[in-house]
Amino acid sequence: MKVRNHAAIITGGGSGMGAETARRLAAEGAKVALFDQNIDAVQAIADEIGGIAAQCDVSDAASTEAAFAKARDAHGPARIAINCAGVATPGRIVGREGPLDLAAFKRVVDINLVGTFNVMRLAAYDMSKLDPLETSERGVIINTASVAGFEGQIGQAAYGSSKGGVIALGLPAARELARFGIRVMTVAPGLIATPMLLNMPQEVQDSLAASVPFPNRFGDAGEYADLALHIIGNVMLNGDVIRLDGALRLAPK
């Protein structure tokens, strides 16, 4: 699928991989709607690229349905949906103060996994009613997991399991949505230089970057955006997970 003149929705669009992907899509001629809980941040990106912004809690059905309605009214139904919204709140199952707070675990799963599914279900429904393109596809959905979904570290019980769920969601979703000509792909980034990592102490950043075999650095949000654009354009990419990690495999801690 070529992105020009097609509507696109990106969650987590106020920063990091979501914001950079929005910039790339807009530069290629897509009509971009950005969703984020931080309305000031996402509005700034929307103003920069000529898109629209919607405040959205992806884990909440009503909030996400309202954001979709705003995007649909402005640009029409989206053929491209990219899930970048997520949190990485750490916590040991058994810590110094007792068992991990269940609400903290649930919040991570609700945003990362339930939120991904919530956006997918709404995007897929809209896409299913569109006319097929010359490639016979009606749309493409890209979900963002993490290498922690494969080898989560100590303290990543919530994050690792939520991202593992995103990975497991991809194939059954792709199989089900194939009848509509809707593709579903998952990207599992490693250490990407987003605010989540760059807010860590410098010595921690240096240690983490040194663990990446090659290239021996953090990934860049632009490299995620490059991959997203390639997925959109390559109709044979469907139902799979692509690791974007420089051959990184996470140690236990």
Automatic annotation (TrEMBL):
InterPro entries: NAD(P)-bd_dom_sf (IPR036291), Sc_DH/Rdtase_CS (IPR020904), SDR_fam (IPR002347)
MF terms (GO), sorted A to Z: oxidoreductase activity
Top-level taxonomic group: Bacteria
Pfam families per record: adh_short
Entry keyword set: Oxidoreductase
Family: Belongs to the short-chain dehydrogenases/reductases (SDR) family.
Name of the protein in question: 3-hydroxy-2-methylbutyryl-CoA dehydrogenase
Provenance organism: Skermanella stibiiresistens SB22
Organism lineage string: Bacteria, Pseudomonadati, Pseudomonadota, Alphaproteobacteria, Rhodospirillales
